Amino acid sequence: MTYNNRELSWLDFNGRVLQEARDRSVPLLQRLRFLGIFSNNQDEFIRVHVANIVRTSKLKSKGKTPVPDDANIPEAAKKLLALVNNRVSEAQKQFEQIYDEILVEMEACNIHIVNEQQLDKSQKEFCRNYFSSVVARRLVPLILKKHTEIPFLKDNSVYLAVKMITAKEHKRYAIIQIPVSESCPRFVIISSERDKTVIIFLDDIIRLCLDEIFFMFNYKSISAYTFRTLRDANFSFDDDISKSLIEKMNAGLNRRLHGRPVKLVYDKEMPADMLEFISAKFNLKENKDLSAGGRYHLMSDLMKFPKLYPEPEDTDLHPMYSPDIKPLSSILKAIDAKDILLNYPYHTFNHFIDFLKETAIDPKVDAIYITLYRLAENSKVVNTLINAAKNGKTVVVVIELFARFDEEQNTAYSELLQKEGVRVIHGIRGMKIHCKLVLVKRRNRGYVYVGTGNFNESTAHIYSDLGLFTSNARIVADAEAIFGFLQNIPAPFYTEQLIVSPYYMRKQFEELIKNETGNSRNGKKAYIYAKFNNLTDETMIKLFEKASREGVEVRLIIRSACCLQQPSDERNLRVISIVDRFLEHERMIIFHNDGDEKVFVMSADFMTRNLDRRVEVGVNITDENIKKTLKDVFDIQWNDNVKARDLNNNYIKTGSDKPCRSQTELYMYYKRLSLPLPPDSAD
Predict the structure, then answer these.
(1) I want to staple 552 with a disulfide (CB 3.0 to 4.6 A). Which of 62, 501, 547, 681 is the partner?
(2) CATH number for 217
(3) Beta-bridge partner residues of 337
(4) pLDDT band at 60 (very low <50, low <70, confident <90, very high)
(5) How confident is the model at residue 494 (pLDDT cuts 50, 70, 90)?
(6) Do 93 and 119 reside in the same domain of the chain?
(7) Structure confidence by residue, pLDDT tens digits, 271-310
(8) Which of 368, 607, 589 is CA-nearest to residue 499?
(9) What is the pLDDT of residues 164-223, one digit of tens each?
(10) What share of the chain has pLDDT > 70, as a percent?
């Protein structure tokens, strides 16, 4: 069996995001935001994966003598780098084409994005006033000199390269950082009326006002062109035992901040002399390190494109309350009565926040334990944990400092929590703590939450995730064992209902797949239905393939990287991918198990890193109603014939003539279950 390359497969996934931007059935401004998601994904891919391939390609080969296969990795990396660069370049061309098409469609809806050369007199006056009142004080122009090093330029920022020509044809270069922030957004609404909205990039307001910035120089012409750098995001860690972990983290973040530039992306209209001058400053002289683009860069900002009213969007899918949690009532009492499954963003994430708030003030709660991976800015979760500590609860937070691109924020939260009396644990050396687990100890009772997604209220309304509340005594005991392990408490580490990597998870799932294979071989009905973000572990892929050859029906929903290739003649093994307005993020797997279905919800993908090098937690679902719900959820998504694609990015066509857009169908499914409570049932 030939396997897909992980990096190329991931680029296929980002191609599906680009398909959403191209799809005219998607609301217009959502298409624009999909372009922002695509651009953000592509930037991270270059900073992490392309940078890693570049590093590998520059390793010295071990020679021509008979050696293990991995001795020629540098040569393989060079070939892969060429393929990846071609794919990235081609995708960028598609991006620019789609962006131009969307602009035309926006104009038909009387939404106009203009530049500084298209402004009328009153619009110019507005922009100059905006520049004076909002922008000017945030600018720090840097004059570039021939024999001096270029000042440090931030990675996730856009710059204007300014060229001035004097009357004597002398050239002078300068750089201006475009100062994007919440109070100085990338997109500025010049006017918004019922029949017309006019928007301008912040870049172009600065272009318009170059004369105000450089008034002290004598020049006959002045022009500006956007560019940006993409740096290697590799995180190097100092092992100096004399330093604290926080000191090492800060030093590592500073090294990443000054990482080697991987690419220089520039406006293709930039004059050759200016490009040569700037690229030489970065020691980027090879064509593969330079990438010509359009007038604007860092288009991930399109994700923050202004909301316009009335906006050409479809109906919002507002989060619902779970039918198992009554408003203004105790969530702990609701969990006492039954296990509760939440599926964000169909259900409100406020249920989880309210759960923490209740435990923070409940006089019978003694302790709260939680793992944190990625958090929102101004996190309500962190604030609630601090409140619990101030109320005399024992609060233990296991926070992962090495969550990529969240290291700085997590380090700051770690220091804040410790300052407020929370016990903070930074995990286990050599392993990321990626599980989503909460344990609450209440007198004579415990409560556990196991989830697939981060405790992040900002992303919970756009990421689809699962979370289970339970007071099951066996699961509570398992959670206590896990948190004991994470705190380095010397005690036997065994779990019954929770499955944990890197210790038991791989082995248990391997056995369950083999069991399903054996059942099929013995003539019994057998199936495996699984949903992950990524499927890249070779051992698991081989087990799925073997099971399907033995007659097991294997259905896989994989959002992004999938190293399994869909065989043309394999009817028992099918893979689909769903990309829609919500990011499909939940992980679950269902085994027929000779009629006694086993259903698991977990934080882990089937990737080698998740199964062997990270602490992950999954839960064996025992509640029959929740099992049925999860089976229904999978079936709805499996029958998607609107937003589902195969691994070649072809849309899935089913036998049904009725359109099934699974995210909309799931919303309606939960809405039917979430009917308003009758008046007499209120507390």
Answers:
(1) 547
(2) 3.30.1840.10
(3) none
(4) low
(5) confident
(6) no
(7) 999 988 888 877 776 556 777 888 999 999 999 999 886 5
(8) 589
(9) 998 888 899 999 999 999 899 999 999 877 778 999 999 999 999 999 999 999 899 999
(10) 89
Q: Is the dihedral of CA 608, 16, 557, 541 positive or negative?
A: negative
Catalytic residues: 434
Those residues with Cβ within 8 angstroms of residue 117's Cβ, 6 or more apart along the chain or in another chain: none
**Domain of 342?**
331-491
Please name the residues in contact with 34: beta carbons below 8 A apart, sequence gap of 6 or more: 17, 18, 20, 21, 26
Closest Cα to residue 192, out of 287, 108, 307? 307
Residue 325 resides in a domain: no
* Most confidently predicted of 139-153, 170-184, 224-238: 170-184
Q: Pick the most confident of 56-65, 273-282, 509-518.
A: 509-518
Are 487 and 386 members of one domain? yes
244: its two tokens: 């604290």
What mean pLDDT comes out for the span 100-116?
94
**Average pLDDT, integer, range 506-529:** 97
Q: Total structural domains in the chain?
A: 4
Burial of 236 (0-12, 13-18, 19+ CB in 10 A): exposed
Measuring CA to CA, how many Å separate 64 from each of 55, 74, 361? 21, 13, 68
Question: Are 99 and 185 in a shared domain?
Answer: no
Give the residues across from 172 on adjacent strands.
164
Domain stops at, among 109, 133, 153:
109
Question: What span, in angstroms and rounded, lies between the C-alpha atoms of 114 and 341?
Answer: 47
CATH number of the domain that 450 lies in?
Answer: 3.30.870.10
Q: In this predicted model, which residue has the larger pLDDT, 102 or 4?
A: 102
Copy the structure tokens of residue 620. 């064996």
pLDDT of residue 556: 97
∠ at Cα 500 (498, 505), nearest 5°? 105
**What does the block give as tokens for 187?**
């997109």
Cα–Cα dist 188/205, whole Å: 9
Residue 249 lies in a domain: no
Task: Judge if the upstream peptide bond of residue 141 is cis by omega within 30 degrees of 0.
Answer: no
Is there a single domain that holds both residue 204 and residue 347? no
CA-to-CA distance for 239 and 470, rounded, in angstroms? 40
Question: Is the domain of 105 the same as that of 156?
Answer: no
Reduce the DSSP state of residue 496 to 3 states and report it: coil
Q: At what angle do helices 73-108 and 28-45 cross, to 10 degrees?
A: 160
The H-assigned helical ranges of 469-504 are 473-486
User: Among 71-80, 138-147, 393-402, 551-560, whose mean pLDDT is lowest?
Assistant: 71-80
Check whether residue 487 and residue 572 sit in a common domain: no
What's the distance, CA 26 to chain centroid?
A: 21
φ/ψ region of 421 (left if φ > 0, alpha if ψ in -120 to 50, else beta) reads: left
The one-letter amino acid code at 53 reads I
Q: Average pLDDT of the chain? A: 88
Same domain as 573, residue 617:
yes
* pLDDT given for residue 184 in this prediction: 96
491, 518, 553 - which closes a domain: 491
What are 659-670's pLDDT values in tens digits?
A: 999 999 999 999
Q: What is the pTM of this model?
A: 0.88
CA–CA separation, 598 and 596 (whole Å): 7
The dihedral built from the CA positions of residue 513, 515, 520 and 524, taken in this order, carries a sign that is negative
Same domain, 542 and 615: yes
- Which DSSP string corresponds to 394-437? EEEEEE-TTSTT-HHHHHHHHHHHHHTT-EEE--BTTBEE--EE
Query: Is 128 within a domain?
Result: yes
- Domain with residue 54: its CATH number is 1.20.58.310
DSSP code, position 548? H
Query: Please, which residues have CB within 8 angstroms of residue 1's CB and are 6 or more apart in sequence?
Result: 542, 545, 565, 567
- Does residue 682 lie within any of the structural domains? no
